[in-house]
Specification:
single chain, alpha/beta, Archaeosine Trna-guanine Transglycosylase, Chain: A, domain 4, Transcription Regulator spoIIAA, Rossmann fold, 3 domains
Amino acid sequence: MKEIPTVILKTKKADAVERFHPWVFSGAVKKTTGIPADGDMVHVYSNKMKYLATGHYQEGSIAVRLFSWEKTGAGESYWKEKLEKALAFRRGLFPAEGHVNAFRLIFAEGDGFPGMIIDVFNDILVFQSHSVGMHLLKPLFTKMLRELMGAQIKAVYDKSGPTMQRMSDQPVENHFLYGENGQTVITEHGCKYQVDVESGQKTGFFLDQRDNRKLLAGYAKDKTVLNMHAYTGGFSVSALKGGAKHVDSVDSSLKAVELINKNMEMNGLTESSHQAIQADDIYYLNNMEKGMYDLIVLDPPAFAKSRSARHNAVQGYKRLNAAAMEKIKPGGLLFTFSCSMVVDRRLFEDTITAAAIKSRRKIAVIHTLGQPADHPASIYHPEGNYLKGMVLKVE
């Protein structure tokens, strides 16, 4: 049996690992033994040779992604038990006879699979790996999940090409690990959505806004709604199902506009109650009339994916929110979000406060929002709490 390589940390660099943070940064590494390759399992030790944790090695700023603080060989039974626990938890959240058939089955560090995302879209599984170690385990995960989920799963699609190409010299393409049909229809609290896992953004659909879409539906009755950055029209369908008088869905992508219209048709929603508009977000907000909308949704893509881009992202969030606050009808509700991991909740809320001051409107916080239960974040890994949101009442 091949001996497992070791990573030995520098003096005083074991604290984060002992506090169960799942990342070992390259600057903390004193030396390695056994010459680990990218994706190899390694044991991590302190400078005094005390065992700390086990994880996957990879050259880069994050040298080891940890998945166990007990020494393990992490064989098939180890990963099967973790998949069974994750699946049992989701089946408790979303029973077969319920109203939701799309959910996140594995959420990276939150489920003890650092660098791995697995989403369920009705009868399709979508994998997206962000580490070589997890990338190498995908054939095993495919086999296990087909056994655990049985006839429910018609296809397994690996959507890791873009992320893995940044980590490997070898060409990696998105491809089917099982089956060949990447299109399905998902249901969510009485709403239906067309999902194409091959061409859709991220893994195919933004599951993390499920609870927030349901919340919005409860506020939408008889309201005129603007859904910015609408993409698939998730908030738009929810608003109309909740009784909204009219919804405008705005996105800069023509493809998104076409998808929104398909989802409207599939839900039996009429053209008289909805309009999909291709337009730039700031341009649309700056040029619309004041008081047109009772409810506005701002759910932009991540403005910052690195700390170096954080300042510009904050300015972008401020401009966008100030424009919406200035134009919304008095007494209106603003649902505003950030999915930028490097913009933490405190910075996001400070940015929204700065936008409120700029708008010179009286504003109260009605809800503080986040990601749903199928996107659990480890208490030791605050970076996993990436989705931040607020519902504001604007007078």
